[in-house]
Write a structure and sequence with these properties.
The chain has 180 residues and is α/β, with parallel strands linked by helices. The chain has four helices and eleven strands; from the N terminus they run ββαβββαβαβαββββ. 22% of the residues lie in helices and 39% in strands.
Amino acid sequence: MALKATIYKADLSIADMDRHYYGDHSLTIARHPSETDERVMIRVLAFALHAHPALGFTKGLFDTDEPDLWQKDLTGAIDLWVEVGQPDEKRILKASARAEKVVVYSYSATSHIWFKGIANKIERTRNVSVVNIPADTSAQLEKLAQRSMQLQCTIQDGQVWLTNGVDTVLVEREMFRDKA
């Protein structure tokens, strides 16, 4: 018998003063059996950073042809493709061909090594950005994970804070590659 997803619910309030985006989102997140709370929270963070009414979670790890999040226009064309983790260069190149913009969020202590291995291979892409979330920051985010969450995200002057009302995480980000 196959293992089933664990369902997480998050009420996420976003105040993104850099993009002038303010909204409340009720998120349902299916956590794959092989996925960690840390990865779930990086997906929530990615949602907050790119929040838009058309942005949504996909089948993710349950379907290898889909990213973790995507935003499609009314014709079904993919405006934004978001990957979490350390995808191989073939997956990134495929995403680059299918979407207007691709953003990869890596969060492992080995992210620098992974990026050095793929940097030359994705150099010809015009629309791929790679953002690293340092391991200590992702560990702090993991502590916010609960099956039912009330989260607030504030973004101002490039700084990001995520809080559950008790604990607050200042999200550090390192741009490995910026093609926004």
